[in-house]
UniProtKB/TrEMBL annotation, chain A:
Stored NCBIfam families: PA_CoA_Oxy3
Region of interest called Disordered, as start-end residue ranges on this chain: 1-25
Record-linked Gene3D superfamilies: 1.20.1260.10
Stretches with biased composition (Polar residues): 14-24
InterPro entries hit by this protein: Aromatic_CoA_ox/epox, Ferritin-like, Ferritin-like_SF, PaaA_PaaC, PaaC
Source organism: Paeniglutamicibacter terrestris
Biased composition (Basic and acidic residues): 1-10
SUPFAM superfamilies (UniProt xref): Ferritin-like
Protein's UniProt name: Phenylacetate-CoA oxygenase subunit PaaC
From TrEMBL, chain B:
Gene name per UniProt: paaJ
One Pfam family per UniProt: Zn_ribbon_PaaD
Protein name, per record: Phenylacetate-CoA oxygenase subunit PaaJ
Sequence ranges assigned to domain PaaD zinc beta ribbon in this UniProt record: 119-158
InterPro entries xrefs: Fe-S_Maturation_MIP18 (IPR052339), FSCA_dom_sf (IPR034904), MIP18-like (IPR002744), PaaD-like (IPR011883), Zn_ribbon_PaaD (IPR056572)
Amino acid sequence: MSTHDIDHSLDSFGDSTASATRVTPGNALRPEDIAIAQAKPSEQVAEYALRLGDDALILAQRLSHWISRGPEIEEDIALGNIALDQLGHARSFLSYAAKVWDKTEDDLAYWREEEDFRSLHIVEQPNGDFGVTIARQLIISIYQHLLYTALLESSDPTIAAISAKAVKEVDYHRDHAIAWTLRLGLGTEESARRMRHALDVLWPYVGEMFEDEELHATLGDVAVAPSTLRAAWDQEFSAVLADAELALPTIPFAMARGRRGEHSEHLGFILAEMQVLARKHPGASW
Amino acid sequence: MIATVTELREIAARVTDPEIPVLTIADLGILRNVELEDDTVVVTITPTYSGCPAMDAITEDLGTVFKASGFGKVRVNLVLSPAWSTDWMSDSGKAKLEAYGIAPPTGTGHRGPVTLGLGVKCPQCHSLNTKELSRFGSTSCKSMYQCKDCLEPFDYFKVLS
């Protein structure tokens, strides 16, 4: 744990070097803030944090699109809040990862190219109709809940601390997704049809979530091998679908290599929108 | 300027949450520690939610309140661990919330296989006959409720366990 000085922060207000994501100079989480361990992460731990952070960041960006477009005002607020939580997790993970390269969360979010992102294909899938977004939330929130729960035992104290914070919030995301899956699955003929369609659209990207990489083996107790989450995820996901009277899709998984920087055509468009301001006006703040 | 840790803590505890101005950061339970390192006041706080934008304002307010009390050097530490939960909120904080019109968190949340909805009391007429309108409210830490007796909609500071 280290610190930042308020005088310094106040002085930098309005300064062109101040972060574009900070409205006020107090700063939410900076690399030094979240570093419970004094040392920088190793290159491999940073790579792992990058994966966790990128998934949350791209999902946050996707979900933010629902703001002002929700089917009802409560959903506008709910999806906006979930996006904000995800952005918070992304900032923590990316700030931590960035330390190893002497960079900041902003450098990683705004100045990396598409092939440098390590996010899963599922988070970059278009929002579609409300049913598609809910199906994606169900898939992801059950996954993240299991993942962050397992990461409470990570031997890296910073990863464990961020996960401990994140899991409480994802708990609410999962509740939200389950409640809507039930409502849509058991609702009208049309809402059930849309949920079936949504599951078919997203199912091909489920496989990638559980693929182990060499990195996981290298990291040992720091990381969680995604394949170990599969059985619990299957059980939980199937149970929700059964309650919602929806069948598990039987479509095969697609080839997806987001972890290697090979993305679908969607990510480029997401980044173009997310990065344009920072790139057009480098160092801008308000 | 010489001050005891208790005095310093009292100064830090004057800072209120920008979203819920009736609650101080001490009531909320996000003020973790205040100490003096040479001539620098070191305050440790923790966020309620990962994405909580109020942390910026709180950090800035801490600087202001200590400067007004004659302490020029202030440093704010942000820690994530142990993670905040609504159990950190003081009883007086909960009473202030209710008086302000926000239902305070009840119970210690759900950590079992079944999500158990505990009764939420209307801060206006104190009826327990209320319903959840939305799990998510105007800030990350609140959800929206309505009283079925007096019909008033109200915020509920939701449980985070």
